Fold each of these.
Amino acid sequence: MELYDVMRTTFAAREFTGESLPDNVLDRILDNARFAPSGGNRQAGHIIVVEDRQTRQRLADATQPGARRYFAQIMAGESPWNPVTRTQVTSETIAATTVPESVSTPLLTASVVLVVCVDLRLVAATDQDLDRVGVIAGASIYPLVWNILLAARGEGYGGTLTTMAVAQEPKVRTLLGIPDTYAVAAVLPIGKPVKQLSKLRRNTVGEFVTRERFDGDPYIPGSHS
């Protein structure tokens, strides 16, 4: 596939055929994804390839607490896990919320699950002293995550970036032997999608790009000289 076609059609694949992912294909995906940029080129990522069924079930179990809060907040009309507006949903309501099977099923039906970690000793978190949730450290790992998903799409496979298990990071660390100096950044189920989407819905450029300032004129493609 052409680069722009891959970029415009890489969707969140959650339903898989059960077809295996050949080792040579996974080799190509990882070998090409590794060229993603990272802060200072420190290459702080570490990927764990998980195939064991029992381990994947425990990863799926780890998604449940975070997912319960996610869906409880949606039902309450909130933006789930929002770091700006504190949730008004009670812990009792969260505990009683049912999580759809579709949340954990991809971890069990995918050909392989990749757990992507980042070495916090190697990131330059320039926003660590600001009075807000940190995001800059992600620049050292999420380009690698996205490269994996782009490469999977280019090979005719697919996956989705999941983070619900991160809410239970201590349990994930224990399960997979991850050192305390590493953070879990993403859990990626990868497999052959039941169907391949070719058209995605996204905001237009003019809806989220402005000129000169945040409150500047919308950037409309083709309108500038």
Amino acid sequence: MKLHPKRVTRTDVAKEAGTSVAVVSYVVNNGPRPVAEATRQRVLAAIQKTGYRPNGIAKALVSGMTQTYGLIVPNISNPFISSMAHALQQEAFKHGQILLLGDSGDDRNREKELINNLLHRQVDGLLYTSVDRHPYIELIQESGTPCVMLDRVDAKLNVSAIIVNERLAAFKATQHLTQHGYCDIAIICGPRDMLNTQDRIAGWCDALQQANLTVHDEWIFSTDYTRTGGYEVTLEMLKGKLPRALFATNELQAFGCLRALSEHGIKVPNDIALVCFNATQQSRFNFPSLTAVCQPIDKMAKTAIEMLKTWNGEALECEFEFDLQIGESCGCSSHVKE
């Protein structure tokens, strides 16, 4: 039977270096007492020779810092959310932090459990996107843990956040369709009780009203923010009058929509134009490539981590500009004429 090797302790390092355990601790923790350089080098050489690894938990108890951040997201399978998580992980690592992921699976009860779990682990800060923009801020604030929301929330909550003006972004995306001359423009949106859905519907309405177009409530197709949702709601849409253009309020819905349209021989953009919200690299490599709202994910991740690092209890909000990435799906590159 194979025996596991004995774990190396500070006592082993002290014996190898010919010093006391206390001196080893001063070297490992860089204090609180100074150590002569020659002695310090002996301890470092002993650490390397013995393969000693400092106990991170013990160090955290002494310093009050765990070198970890918690990230809570609604659904990591969403390409936009996974892209943001990747950028946050990369940025956190630059600052010597490890990112612990909590995926709530679009479930508010699970979201609360994840928050409690991460707080019990005494993470140094939380990065948080709530399922429906009704976050458990009180729970976090009671713990005194720094928190940065990755989405707009009610200003009364007095919490730091990085945001993009989603109503304005939805307006710009829909306006691009009206500028093509399209008049019959429908929207595929998320669940209507969600605040981000309401923002995106409002932006769609703003653009139609600015172009003196009628807002048809029957052309608001609500579904989940998933490929399946986009696919199924498009099949429902095809049972009625076909709009000339569509605004899908997330990338996954747009992918599902394209599948349903293709199955019915409806070409994008020749028969129906399409724009969407929250593009990732997948939008560019799709066929047709998607015209879509892009958020500056890397800049947002850098700012979010910096806000946690410099957190002093003051609620800050940082708003970012967005871009409208022009692809083939809106008709720009295919010169479609009405």
Amino acid sequence: MQTLLLLFVANVLVNNVIFARFLGLCPFMGVSRDINSAFSMGLATTFVLTMSSIATWLLEYGVLEPLGLGYLRLLSLIMVIAVMVQLTELYIAKQSPALHRVLGIFLPLITTNCAVLGVALLIVQEQLTLIQTVMYGFASAVGFTLVIVMFAGLRVRLSLSEVPKIFAGNPIAFITAGTLAMAFTGFAGMAK
């Protein structure tokens, strides 16, 4: 249990997919203009990332490794992720058309979100158990959601503030993202 808790905290804060691994920067910058969109994208990504992590583990250790088909790993992972995103998009379109409109193009872009593929590849690389895989995928998604919602809150606050004209818009967003990334590096501690 302690190992799973440490895995969760490590992937949410220390090895955050956005700030430590630099994965998922496109939705991080694109969907973080308001908190509701950021949170919705975080929830959709959480579902896709967790489910694709499970499917990745099952595919890797149930099919690819036993049959010696490791060379098909990347193609297989992309297919699994595409299917998970399509299912998520269909579900959201059916259950909440307003949310589907808000997320717009960014929902299908979860397929190309390198955070989802990166986590799937890291799961295979680190040779985790199924329970660890679920925790790893879920924690990575929670970290993604935490960061994108925090950043959205900061961007909303900045839009209400008076910013020098030269920094208005994307420049101040990138400066804020950099500052937030530096704050997250503090969770890693100091190396001796």
